[in-house]
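Revision sheet: structure tokens.
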Amino acid sequence: MRRLVMWNLQTLDGCFEGTSPWQLDFHLAAWGEELERLSLEQLGEVGTLLFGRATYQGMADHWTKETEKGPIADLMNGVEKVVVSSTLAEATWRNTRLVRGDAVLEVARLKREPCRAPGRKPDADIFVFGSARLSDALSRAGLFDEYRICVAPVVLGAGAPLWKPGWGTRLRLLDAKALATGAVVLRYAPRTEA
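Predicted:
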């Protein structure tokens, strides 16, 4: 079974974007050499990137134009991607497959499938970037094996929360690392005991 890992940046007050879609200026407060290195390491672990429709469209729009950004752009454009959507007509970003139907059932099935990406291990991890609505559904279904959150040293005061109301759980800390930018990278696993 492949592991499902969430990777997201959020503000100290829990926003994963500002008051309007793709308002992500706070990412710059966390970005630096350490986060770039971590991004490259994580992309090296990824077998598949998983997106909901809105994040997929934003990421595809951004990364298909980033041809001179070097290794991160190369990895983002080259890695296998899956977008879960019932409304998207087609997925045109290179190496992307469109999956329709119930997101929870489809992702549970995807976790059981071997990775199809050339040069990646059959059990390579599935990472979810952004995709707060999809992440909420997958969290409620207990499908995440790990949550990786970079907390930027910013309080927005208003914005879209990463964690949606009505769901809660206890997590087990795996690692915490402070970055020179003042951001903190937290790694958690779901608690398995009752």
